[in-house]
Amino acid sequence: MTAQSARICVSITADNAAEILTAVKPVLPLVDVVEIRLDGMQDLRIEQCTAELSCPVLVTNRPIWEGGQFTGSEQDRIDLLCKAVHAGAQYVDIELRSAPHLMAQVLQEAKAHHARVIVSSHDFHGTPSREQLRETLQQMMACGADIGKMVTTAANAEEALRILALQEEAQAVSFPLSAFAMGTAGRISRFATLYLGGFMTYAALNARQATAPGQISVKELHALITLFEAGL
């Protein structure tokens, strides 16, 4: 068995760039990407983060309708994402349910600045059928995503396995995909995806600052990796 090759992304929400930098610097040696949640910031200028962080920055501006905190107009939300890409963010997340013209705006801006677009889908109520998951995957690829992110909520082990199995579909067509489940039953999938072909898993700075149900901390994730790989 080979060691994990998927990326580890730490998700962080803070009022401004200075607070983000202070909070995230202690865990930088343990992560590959820093996700900055614009929807949780008061001062949305992130130039300081992209200039000072030694690893790639992912920007997300999650709307209320997909579990986030952004309450403004959709155009304002997308404009802020594009400004962050212009400021140096290497990854940008946009929801699959976003309007096609706004998706096109993000894709164009990302291409112009050599950033990669993550098209995401989150289900906070359950895990759809295999057929529905495959259809969502096809939609992600068709819309021009560089990377897909599909996150569901697992009520049991069967549902956690169902979302993880989608990675086989993505690997068959060489499409980078992050696929795992939220919730208590889905916690194992956040770790397992590292070894089952997932593109990236997401971790919190600590349990108190988790940005999604069932998210584990960076240090807990690395403790699991250490224990697991000790037996490889």
Structure description:
By secondary structure, the protein is an alpha/beta fold. Helix content is 38%, strand content 19%. The chain contains eight helices and eight strands. It has helices spanning 17-24, 47-52, 74-86, 100-112, 130-142, 157-172, 187-192, 218-229; strands at 7-12, 33-37, 57-60, 91-95, 116-122, 147-153, 177-182, 200-204. The chain has an eight-stranded parallel β-sheet. Strand 4 (91-95), helix 4 (100-112) and strand 5 form a beta-alpha-beta unit. Helix 3 (74-86) runs parallel beside helix 4 (100-112) and helix 5 runs parallel beside helix 6 (157-172). The longest helix has 16 residues, at 157-172. The protein is globular and about 40 Å long. The mean pLDDT is 93.
Q: Spans of 5+ residues with little confidence (pLDDT < 50)?
A: none
**What is the helix content?**
25-40%
Measured by DSSP, the beta-strand proportion falls in 15-25%
How many helical elements? Answer: 8
Shape designation: globular
Q: How would a textbook summarize the main sheet? A: 8 strands, parallel
> In angstroms, what separates the terminal alpha carbons?
6 Å
Round the mean pLDDT to the nearest integer and report it.
Answer: 93
Global structural class = alpha/beta
Radius of gyration: 17 Å
Strand order of the largest sheet: 7-6-5-4-3-2-1-8
What's the short version?
The protein is of the alpha/beta class and 232 residues long. The protein has helices at residues 17-24, 47-52, 74-86, 100-112, 130-142, 157-172, 187-192, 218-229; strands at residues 7-12, 33-37, 57-60, 91-95, 116-122, 147-153, 177-182, 200-204.
